[in-house]
Amino acid sequence: MKLLQIILAFVGVTVVALMLIQCEGNKGEAAGRKFDQEREEVKEELRSLRRDIDREIDELGTKIDNASDDGKARMEDARRELNEEKQELDKALDKVENSTEETWDDVKKGARNTAEKVRQGFRELGQEFQELFNDDKK
């Protein structure tokens, strides 16, 4: 009888241990899904910003021909700046695509900082373009 109690106790401990292991496995799967989801969101954010920059570069290309000499020089500078910003986004996107769960927090922070920096530069260039286009219409 005592042996049966020991066996039942051992089985009980084993069942509890297995349940705990299963819970830990589920946490890992949930964390993995969260990582994948966040990574996809950040990648799309960077890609969307890159598409915006590409559109602006294309628009500049069509407007350069009709600009004054000073306007052309300023637009070429702006186009160079946009290409540099695009390269920064490409680097951040590459880091995001190659990130792991272990590096994700740092990579995500860096990517979001890069995106914000690029957005700010993009807004400033947009204001400059408005002024430039208004100057060329005078």
Structure overview:
Residues 32-102 form a coiled coil. Keywords: Coiled coil. The protein has helices at residues 2-64, 69-97, 104-137. By secondary structure, the protein is mostly helical. The chain has one domain. The protein is rod-shaped and about 100 Å long. The mean pLDDT is 81.
Write the layout of secondary structure elements.
Layout: H1 2-64, H2 69-97, H3 104-137
Coiled coil: 32-102
Keywords: Coiled coil
Features:
0% strand; coiled coil; mainly alpha
**Mean pLDDT, rounded to whole units?**
81
What structural category arises from helix and sheet content?
Answer: mainly alpha
Distance between the termini: 103 Å
- Please tell me what the overall shape is: rod-shaped
Helix and strand sequence: HHH
| Domains (count) | 1
Uncertain regions: pLDDT < 50 for 5+ in a row? none
Count of helical segments?
3
Number of strands: 0
**Largest beta-sheet details:** none
**In percent terms, what proportion of residues is strand?**
under 5%
Radius of gyration: 27 Å
